[in-house]
Amino acid sequence: MGKVKVNNLFKTYKVKGKKVNALNGMSFEIEQGEILGFLGPNGAGKSTTIKIMLDLIRADKGEVLIDGIDSRLPEARKRLGFMPENPQYFDTLTGFDLLMFSASMYGIDKDVAKKRAWELLEEFELKEAAKRPVRKYSKGMIQRVGFAAAIIHNPEILILDEPMSGLDPIGRVLFKNKMRELSDKGVTIFFSSHIIPDIEDICSRVIIVNKGKVVKSLTRTEIKYLTTTGFTIIVNKEVPNLGLKFIKLQEGLYEIKCAKDEIVNIIDLLKEKKVIIFDILPTKKDLENIFLDLTTY
Ligand SMILES: Nc1ncnc2c1ncn2[C@@H]1O[C@H](COP(=O)(O)OP(=O)(O)OP(=O)(O)O)[C@@H](O)[C@H]1O
After folding, report:
1. What is the pTM of this model?
2. Residues 134 and 25 grouped into a single domain
């Protein structure tokens, strides 16, 4: 239950008689209860893969199996919940109506749906706005109601396309907590994102795609290692002749910047000199450079 197998997908679009190869043997598996991040530069084939998983478009070759069932069958579709990147809802609907509409698409009994809709509106802090038309919602509120609509039928697998882009810090915490909670209950979560800290925070694994196929699969620890280029060490005092550059932040507060492989020696040195370390902060590589490193092998 909640298992996904994406098997050797190929997809070509035709634009003005020219062929665009969107997928070139895209293959990966998602285990039950896993939070898997889907990362890749623009045009890598993420949206095309998601659309094929949801049977919104068809692959030229290959298959997607949801718990062993072909994703083109309605039986498979029912197990999935989906939140698009820019939800375009019938904006005259209220938040409550939207959830009821989504529930009706999955054939949920009206009374059950009503109860579930109110529960979700409460969880996503939309109770006050429940009877307001969605067109009057802020971007964050639209994303919240979109998330709620995607899980109203208690799907086994949740697919989210850039779920946290444009959310404020409180909204992001809410989404991350919700994703963790669902994963703890055994829901499989697959989401695309460009936001490295979010991915590091919640994903158990990340797959990186480029040119229509997987180029790397990384565990959370591996991605933390890969994205860290060095550290900033915050200390209480300056020590001369250590070969280190102490930058004064204020009285009794200095920072030292170092490369990833220097950290252990520097900490030993500071310990020896009885320097107090207040904090050690990783310096992060930006996404473009990570893609560059991984895709130019
Ligand atoms: N409907 C379409 N018609 C023609 N070409 C398309 C279509 N959809 C996608 N493509 C092309 O297929 C390739 C993969 O696009 P896709 O949208 O799947 O990538 P993506 O990884 O989701 O990109 P982004 O991060 O920009 O959303 C790109 O070259 C894109 O231009």
Report:
1. 0.84
2. yes
